[in-house]
Design a protein that fits this description.
Elements lengths: L3 E5 L1 H5 L8 H12 L3 E4 L5 H7 L9 E3 L4 E4 L4 E5 L4 H13 L5 E6 L2 E6 L6 H8 L7 E3 L3 H4 L3 E9 L1 H12 L4 E7 L6 E7 L4 H12 L3 E6 L5 H5 L3 E5 L4 H6 L2 E3 L6 H11 L2
Helix pairs in contact: 2-11
């Protein structure tokens, strides 16, 4: 019998507009996991942020965070797999950001502790919203100089702002094979996010690793945005929620109900009840 791995995106897919999973979806998915369904999520969020918005969801399984840069065991916070930058790659990113006068959120391990660093005097509305949505986040580290901003073992950069100020950085670094970059408008918001990751950090690569760890034979995925396209391309079946972008719907196996209507959970219940 084929062993299937079910993987969902979070924001705009499993999460509703209130950045939560409905009680129905939690009960349905946890019940199916208890019966043996292999289910996980793949998100651009950190484990800290994802754990908050998925509160109540089963933590029995490894999860994919930071767009595939890490696979974590959520019950312990243990790192099962990670991708990173070389020192030269980090220097090139800093040079590109300085050239275009962009002050990013920098994700790193400083003295072995996961941190998100930023310079308060360069905050814009998008950065303030990001910080205000995560009160008490132990990763946050306000710094006051560029050298402190880029300190430690940096593994991820997020730039938030207007599209026209971020696009040149995206164009510059996305053409360099050492990096994987995304740029897209924030869900339900006017600002854009440009994210810069190691080349091998992708949901698709992390899902392949997880598929091998669990000895699965098939991948079935769910998503809503353009950054889910690589995940869809390596899946045996892939389903876009009704609120997904047209580019994703065009390559999907099918379109299911929206994130507001528990589309992923309802599809899983129908699929597993048919066995």
């Amino acid at each position: 019998m084929e062993k299937e791995l079910f993987v969902t995106d979070l924001d705009g897919t499993l999460l509703n507009r209130r950045d939560r999973i409905s009680d129905f979806s939690i009960r349905a998915i946890n019940g199916l996991v208890d019966r043996g369904m292999l289910f996980t999520y793949a998100t651009a969020r950190s484990l800290v942020s994802a754990s908050r918005v998925t509160e109540g969801l089963s933590t029995k399984i490894p999860v994919i965070a930071y767009n595939g840069a890490f696979i974590f065991q959520p019950s312990t916070g243990g790192i099962l797999s990670r991708e990173g930058f070389t020192e030269g790659e980090r220097d090139r990113v800093r040079e590109a950001l300085d050239q275009h006068r962009i002050s990013p959120l920098v994700y790193s391990f400083v003295d072995g502790i996961e941190r998100v660093s930023w310079i308060p005097r360069y905050e814009n509305d998008g950065i303030r919203r990001y910080l205000n949505q995560r009160p008490g986040d132990p990763r946050f580290r306000a710094v006051f100089s560029p050298d402190a901003l880029y300190e430690g073992d940096v593994f991820y950069y997020t730039c938030i702002g207007e599209q026209d100020e971020l696009q040149p950085v995206f164009d510059l670094l996305s053409g360099d094979s050492r990096y994987r970059c995304t740029i897209q408008q924030e869900l339900y918001r006017p600002e854009y996010w440009c994210e810069i990751m190691p080349a091998l950090a992708s949901k698709a690569n992390a899902i392949r690793k997880l598929k091998k760890m669990w000895g699965c034979t098939r991948i079935i995925s769910f998503g809503d945005a353009v950054n889910d396209i690589p995940m869809f391309e390596i899946s045996d079946e892939c389903y876009a929620v009704a609120n997904a972008v047209d580019e994703l719907k065009a390559i999907a196996t099918g379109v299911i109900e929206s994130n507001e209507d528990d589309g992923v959970a309802k599809w899983l219940v129908r699929r597993m009840s048919g066995r």
